[in-house]
Specification:
about 190 residues, five-stranded parallel beta sheet, alpha/beta, four-stranded mixed beta sheet
């Protein structure tokens, strides 16, 4: 049987570019798998059920929470998000290194459960740059941008709870740094 994989907690503010870094990590290291979360948020254009998220109803979400089916779950900008337990455990057992790309409330729950977890917080070079990136994405309403900026300021307060903070100045450099932390752990 293959060696059990490493679980990685991977957080950062919305719009910081952690999804872009993640794409590069997946392309560069075949041992990495991204956990697919359940969410009650509506899909954005181009998002595929089962790939980006499992888009579920509130009832479905709460039923799995009642059945203790999540490693963690949280409410973010009025929607529920959660990491299905079974999926992650199966991938780790198969030897994959599994990344949980989740916000900080869920991150804190994961740290409680796994105190030694490799935890990484992706930071924007500045809050001004973060706002510019959120607007540039063109998928959010003004109200949503304001909400996410306020949330980002709040989330930054938790950065020091993570073992490593990485600034996303360029995607390549940030990805290098994440891979080097992972490879130290899997050596
Ligand atoms: P978005 O709506 O932009 O896709 O995600 C909003 C926030 O929820 C992001 O910070 C994202 O990382 C986080 N998120 C995604 N899936 C989960 C999850 O399963 N649990 C938690 N706690 N946060 C999640």
């Amino acid at each position: 049987m293959s060696k059990k994989g490493v679980l990685v907690l991977y957080s950062g503010c919305s719009g910081v570019g952690k999804g872009t870094i993640m794409k590069q990590l997946l392309a560069r290291d075949p041992s990495i798998r991204l956990s697919v979360s359940n969410t009650t948020r509506a899909p954005r254009e181009g998002e595929i059920h089962g790939v980006h998220y499992n888009f579920v109803t509130r009832e479905e979400f709460l039923a799995l929470a009642d059945a203790d089916g999540y490693i963690e779950h949280a409410v973010y900008c009025d929607n529920h998000y959660g990491t299905p337990k079974k999926q992650v455990e199966d991938m780790l057992a198969q030897g994959y290194n599994v990344f949980l790309e989740i916000e900080v409330q869920g991150g804190l729950q994961v740290m409680e459960k796994y105190p030694d977890i490799l935890s990484i917080f992706i930071m924007p070079p500045s809050l001004e740059e973060l706002e510019r990136r959120l607007r540039g994405r063109g998928t959010e309403t003004e109200e949503s941008i304001q909400k996410r900026m306020a949330q980002a300021v709040e989330e930054m307060k938790y950065k020091d709870r993570y073992r490593y903070q990485i600034i996303n100045d360029t995607v390549d450099r940030a990805a290098d740094e994440v891979l080097s932390l992972l490879h130290q752990q899997t050596k």
